[in-house]
Structure formats: structure tokens, C-alpha cells
Task: inverse folding
């Protein structure tokens, strides 16, 4: 594989001088104290993606999102005027969780005209207004207009629903996302409604799994056995070089060149890839989705592999050259644990063949992710052992370097603010 | 034969259908892990050459109006896909060095 040109500074990393080039500490991924501050500094201040508008197909549709890292449960609903709103999932009367089914800790979804508390029957409109209080006359100095659901800041971009748990978000969603991310607006996400969702409980800090999917330096090594030797041996010898990296504020993107598997010699393919005309990169027969927006395939690769947009803090949109996309979410549950969720989105299959090709892509993705996932526990435990405390990162790991720096910067800002507030 | 799972022209695959016509990825993956390599190889060897014919059969129907035996055939193909990984790559039922890792599919299209 040809090496791609690097920026004039000589490397992607030096193109962003604030990153430095020295070895990196992963203290931010092993310290319980750092994690506690990160919850406040990052997860209670950032815009967090909680899903897509297709999960709210009609007025009255709702779903809940448990955000353990921010100690929050949020209900997201499309109200009777069609507006998407978010509320803290708590009844204003005695604090019961308002929307849940069978198991209060589990997420749920459905459709209704009003939310009704299971405990004493208080009712709320989907715009949050409290509309009914059982034996209202028994309360004191009471006006139910004062007891609507507590709103959570909520906004929608490109069909992705975001919430912000800050009292007053420091930036609006568009400003937070910035021009690199909003540059992919116009990609037909709304056409890709066939979903596969996988979830895992992973024994590592959330940032370490983000690292695993934001560099492909590991790919020819860790995943070598996924491909026949005719493919994997030259791949490992060449190593990995991305044609394009970009960092815009706290967000990043890596774009890769692709392959045309249907042109490869047979000995470089797995028989099932040929049989299903599909594989990790997706179905070979890509659906026609029209012109792509400018922000997609920024290096104009042909063939183009994928763009992985790393949206701070814990959300990834990965757009494949074969005209499908997937998202990753990394939801921390402790300093050394998180819930990983990946959703694959395809244009709905029109035939059994198309559907089987999607299944092949989904199964391939899982095989790769299982390899990635298990190395993480091995990394977490050894980082925690503390015997080695700095680690070199190469130029193909520039997004990892950026992620950890952003996390540290946000936490340090928060600590300074807090120390300042305590002095005043 | 009233208890056949598959369309008549795939009658020879019925012994595998009884084991592998599983509607969810979770069940298929669990069956793969619970199988020996000999069992996986036998299933693969018997069915791999029939994929094209099976796809042709299923493609006669719209996805949302497939008769039950064609849906079973789809599930058999999905099982073959999941079994192809150990047979074509790993030479063992589970992903190497991924002993403890799990990844559960919680939403999937039907069929």
C-alpha cells in the first residue's frame, strides 16, 4: 500500500502542536479520583448522543436512557406537536422513577399520550406539564403548574438526538459539534433504518476502548487471522497508514482507503465473503444513496474505506464506503468499566440476498470487536499495576493522544473552576 | 412429511436444520460455542455448497411475506455465516484470545 502524504510539519501529530509528541500517561484511565471529576467535568457538561429520531416515529413515542456516569435517567419523547423533548425521569411528587417497565434499572420504550406515575397516579403531558394530581385538594399551597417534569436540554442534529445535563449548556449543540462534524450533514442517515444493536459490558475505562477503534495501527496484527495469509502477511508487512486525520476542538476523524474485494484474487478472500458478497467492510453491492456531502471521504480516496468521526466525549459515527454506517457509544459505569454499544445501520434489505449480506457484515464486525474488546481488560489491569507509567504513541495514534489530552484538559478546567469557587 | 423445517428440495439438510434453524444471533452464537470443531465442520461442509440455491429459493418471496420454511432456511444460512468464522479462520469455536469477552446482539431485523 502506498504511503500517504503527511502535513507540511512532517506528521499529523505535529500538525497539532498542542498535542506534543512525548510519551503519554494513562493516569486518566486508571484513577478513581479522575473518574469522579470526569463525571462532572465531561459527562454533565457535554452534549451526549442518546439515539436517533427514528426511535421516536410518532407523536407520543418515547424511550428512556440510563446515563449511569451522570447519575441520570432521562426520558426522551416526541410531544403532541412533534417536538423532541427530554426530561429527568422522576415524578415530582415523591421521586419515583416515572417511566419504566418491570425492572426500574432497565431502559424502555413505547408510545403514550401521557406519562402516569405508577406510585400515586400523577399524570404529565409529553411536553412535561403536570396535568393530574390524585386528591389535589389534600396538598398545601399547591399549584400543579409548579410541578411539571424537569426538562433536560435536548437538541437534534442530522437526526441524532442529543441531551446536555448542564443547567445551562456552555455551547449550543451545533457550536459544540463544530464544522468538521456538521460537515457530514446531508449524509442520508434517515434512509438507513435497518438496525443491528450489540452491547457489551467491558472491563476497561471507556477511553481505552475508544482508543482501540480510533487507530488502525493494530489492525494488521491483532486481526491478522481474520483474513487468509495471502492477505494478512503483506498487510502486516506494509503496516497501516491513514490518508487523513483531522482534529477539530475535542473531536477527531480518521479516514481510510478501501479495497474492492470483488477484484481480489480468491486466495485473499474467505469463501463465505464470496458466497455472501459481503464482509467486515459491508455488502459488496452498495445501495445507491446519491451524492455524498463534502465532509465525508475528506481525502477523496477511491476506493475509500471509511471515515470514523470521534465525537467528544463518547460517541462515534463511522461511515463506510459501501454506503452504510455504524455508531459506537461508550457509557462509563466505573473508572475501569463501561457499557459498549454498537449499532449498525443499513438501507433496509429488499431481498434475502441483501439481508444475508447485512448479516455477514454484522457477524464479521462482532468477530473483530470481540478481539478488540478482550485486549482491553488485559490493558486495563496492567495499566493499573502501575509499574510502567508512560507510553509512546506514534503518528497513527494521533487521535488517542488527542482524546486523553482533551479529557485531562476538561478535568483540569473543572478542578480550577471548583478551586476558584471554593476560594471565593 | 409434515414436521419438515425446510423446503422440500433441501430435505437432505433436515438433520442440520433441527440443530441450526435458530431465530436469533444469540442462540446461533451460543450453539457455535457449544459445538465441537468436527460438528461445525460437518455442518459447513454439508451446507456451504447449497447457499446459492438457498438464496435463490428465499429470493422468490418478499422479506416480510416469507413462508415459514423459507424463514427457517434464512436462519440456517445465518448459522452457516456464524459458523464460517471458526471453520474458515479460527480453527476453534471461539474467537482466539476473546475467552471472557461477550457482545450480545439486542436488536436485529426479522427475518
Result:
Amino acid at each position: 500500500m502506498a504511503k500517504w502524504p503527511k502535513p507540511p510539519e512532517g506528521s499529523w501529530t505535529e500538525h497539532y502542536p498542542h498535542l506534543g509528541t512525548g510519551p503519554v500517561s494513562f493516569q486518566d484511565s486508571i484513577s478513581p479520583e479522575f473518574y469522579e471529576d470526569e463525571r462532572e467535568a465531561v459527562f454533565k457538561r457535554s452534549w451526549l448522543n442518546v439515539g436517533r429520531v427514528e426511535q421516536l416515529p410518532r407523536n407520543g413515542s418515547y424511550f428512556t436512557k440510563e446515563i449511569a456516569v451522570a447519575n441520570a435517567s432521562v426520558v426522551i419523547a416526541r410531544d403532541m406537536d412533534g417536538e423532541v423533548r427530554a426530561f429527568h425521569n422522576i415524578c415530582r411528587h415523591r421521586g419515583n422513577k416515572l417511566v419504566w417497565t418491570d425492572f426500574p434499572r432497565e431502559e424502555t420504550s413505547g408510545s403514550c399520550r401521557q406519562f402516569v406515575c405508577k406510585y400515586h397516579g400523577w399524570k404529565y403531558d409529553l411536553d412535561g406539564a403536570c396535568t393530574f394530581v390524585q386528591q389535589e385538594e389534600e396538598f398545601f399551597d399547591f399549584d400543579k403548574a409548579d410541578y411539571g417534569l424537569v426538562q433536560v436540554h435536548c437538541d437534534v442534529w442530522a437526526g441524532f438526538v442529543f441531551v446536555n445535563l448542564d443547567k445551562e449548556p456552555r455551547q449550543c449543540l451545533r457550536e459544540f459539534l463544530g464544522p468538521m462534524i456538521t460537515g457530514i450533514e446531508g449524509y442520508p442517515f434517515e434512509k438507513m433504518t435497518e438496525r443491528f444493536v450489540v452491547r457489551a459490558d467491558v472491563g476497561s475505562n471507556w477511553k481505552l476502548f475508544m482508543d482501540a477503534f480510533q487507530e488502525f495501527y493494530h489492525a494488521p496484527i491483532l486481526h491478522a487471522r481474520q483474513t487468509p495469509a495471502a492477505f494478512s502477511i503483506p498487510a502486516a508487512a506494509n503496516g497501516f497508514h491513514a490518508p487523513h486525520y483531522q482534529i477539530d476542538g475535542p473531536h477527531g476523524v480518521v479516514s481510510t482507503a478501501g479495497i474492492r474485494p470483488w477484484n481480489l484474487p480468491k486466495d485473499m478472500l474467505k469463501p463465505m465473503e464470496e458466497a455472501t458478497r459481503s464482509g467486515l467492510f459491508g455488502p459488496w453491492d452498495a445501495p445507491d444513496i446519491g451524492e455524498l456531502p463534502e465532509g465525508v471521504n475528506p481525502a477523496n480516496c477511491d476506493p475509500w474505506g471509511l471515515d470514523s468521526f470521534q465525537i467528544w466525549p463518547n460517541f462515534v459515527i463511522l461511515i463506510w464506503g459501501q454506503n452504510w454506517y455504524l455508531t459506537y457509544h461508550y457509557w462509563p459505569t466505573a473508572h475501569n468499566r463501561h457499557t459498549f454499544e454498537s449499532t449498525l445501520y443499513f438501507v433496509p434489505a429488499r431481498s434475502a440476498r441483501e439481508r444475508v449480506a447485512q448479516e455477514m457484515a454484522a457477524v464479521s464486525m462482532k468477530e473483530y470487536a470481540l478481539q478488540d474488546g478482550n485486549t482491553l481488560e488485559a490493558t486495563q489491569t496492567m495499566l493499573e499495576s502501575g509499574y510502567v507509567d508512560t507510553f509512546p504513541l506514534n503518528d497513527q495514534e494521533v487521535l488517542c493522544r488527542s482524546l486523553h489530552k482533551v479529557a485531562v484538559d476538561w478535568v483540569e478546567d473543572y478542578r480550577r473552576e471548583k478551586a476558584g469557587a471554593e476560594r471565593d | 412429511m409434515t414436521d419438515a423445517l425446510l423446503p422440500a428440495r433441501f430435505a437432505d439438510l433436515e438433520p442440520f436444520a433441527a440443530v441450526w434453524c435458530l431465530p436469533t444471533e444469540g442462540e446461533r452464537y451460543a450453539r457455535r460455542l457449544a459445538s465441537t470443531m468436527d460438528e461445525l465442520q460437518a455442518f459447513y461442509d454439508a451446507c456451504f455448497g447449497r447457499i446459492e440455491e438457498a438464496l435463490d429459493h428465499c429470493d422468490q418471496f418478499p422479506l416480510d411475506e416469507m413462508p415459514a420454511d423459507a424463514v427457517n432456511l434464512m436462519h440456517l444460512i445465518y448459522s452457516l455465516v456464524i459458523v464460517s468464522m471458526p471453520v474458515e479462520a479460527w480453527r476453534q469455536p471461539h474467537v482466539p484470545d476473546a475467552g471472557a469477552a461477550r457482545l450480545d446482539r439486542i436488536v436485529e431485523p426479522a427475518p
